Every structure is written in structure tokens, then in C-alpha cells.
Request: fold
Amino acid sequence: MTRPAGPVDYKFVQQAYDTVADDYAAHLPDTRAEAALDLAMLDHFAATVEAGGPVLDAGCGAGRMTRYLADRGCNVEGLDLSPAMVAAARRDHPDLSFAVGSIADLSHPDSRFAGVLLWYSTIHTPPEHLGRVFAEVARVLRAGGHLLLAFQSGHGTRDVAAAYRRFGHDVQLERYLTTADDVASQLSAIGLIETCRLVRAAQGGERDAQTVLLARAI
Ligand SMILES: C[S@@+](CC[C@H](N)C(=O)[O-])C[C@H]1O[C@@H](n2cnc3c(N)ncnc32)[C@H](O)[C@@H]1O
Reply:
């Protein structure tokens, strides 16, 4: 499968997560921040992916969702851009497998995975570059495999550096909003057909509505 042209510069994203990794792991060690509805989508994904089939937690951060899926029987491995996040994941989940790499340029062979999770890991990719990430996911997913992705819904850009300043970190980090319709239509164009979507209002300290979208590779 041909990858769309156009490199994405993730230098600031990597630097930011390398800087905040230990605080991220300490303050978000598990799924306590997720809404029950979000977890229902994750549970459905874990139950739907072919039993024993390999699953990639792409943009795994410090590994909390890798843990969640492993605890639900998934044969899951994590991958993240940030070496410090991967080091935290390996430290906190020594029984699981993690690697450093970019979801925009995966080293895995075609059709390797029965499932791919993108849990808030595409949010730092500018919308015009999402096609490259989605093409990589489509390439490594086998026919009948499932993609679950979560992201903040809407339009525009949010500066998230301020959230880390209270931990004493000075980083440059933005996230980009996008809509379920936009994502579903991009996925459909490359053979990832939406099977289910959750779009819910912001709750608690969230600033934006949230989307969790499940798609199946044809
Ligand atoms: C908001 S955190 C979410 C981490 C994890 N999925 C979780 O829910 O805790 C975003 C993560 O995506 C990773 N990330 C962003 N762009 C990436 C890319 N192109 N390739 C791999 N990881 C990426 C970041 O390094 C960071 O760990």
C-alpha cells in the first residue's frame, strides 16, 4: 500500500512527552479519567478483536491502555514516539512489550495486526496529515481487523502546554480537534469502515466533546 506523501515533524511532540513522561505516568496511571461510556467502547473492542490476534496500542504513552487491553485478554503491544514515555511504560508494566516508533511511519509488515488502538494519540497530528497515519493503520491491519480511536471533537487548535506548567514543565504542545464525520470519511476512503461511534459531551474537567470511533478493515 502506498503511503501519502508529506512528512510530519513531531519534534516538539516528542520533546514535550519526553519532558512530562514521569508526571504523566504518575497522574494518569490507569483509566480513572475515562468515562464509563469510553470504557464500554474499549471493552467492546477487546471483545471483538480476534482472540489471540496481535493488537497494537499505537501512541501508548506510559502504557495504561496497553494494560487495560491486556487485562481483558488482548495480545497487545505498545508503541510510542517518546522514548521517555516508553521507558515509563516498561517500568510500570514490565510484563508487557513496548517499542519506540511513530504511527506515521510504522516498521511493521502489512496485515500484521488484528486490532489497532489510537487512544488520543492522533491529537497532535495536524488534520491535514492524519491521512498518513490512517494509511499506516490500514496497511498494518489485516482484513476484518478493527481500529478503535479516541479524540477530542470539534474544530481548531488547543494549547495544552499550560496544563503541564502546573507541574513545572515548560513545553510546546498543541492538540488539534477534528470531527467524527471527517475521520469516518477519511477512514472509509481507505477501506476502514465505521461500525460504531460514540460522541459525547465534555464532562468533568474536559474542555471538548469526545469521540470514540470503531472501524473495521475490509
Ligand atoms: C495524550 S497522550 C495519550 C497516551 C495514551 N494513549 C494514553 O491514553 O494514556 C498522546 C501520546 O501519543 C504519542 N504520540 C503522538 N504522536 C505520535 C506519533 N506520531 N507516533 C507515536 N506516538 C505518538 C505521544 O508521545 C503521547 O505519548
Notes: The chain has a mean pLDDT of 95. The CA atoms of residues 196 and 214 lie 5 Å apart. Helices lie at 11-27, 36-48, 64-71, 83-92, 130-140, 161-165, 180-189.
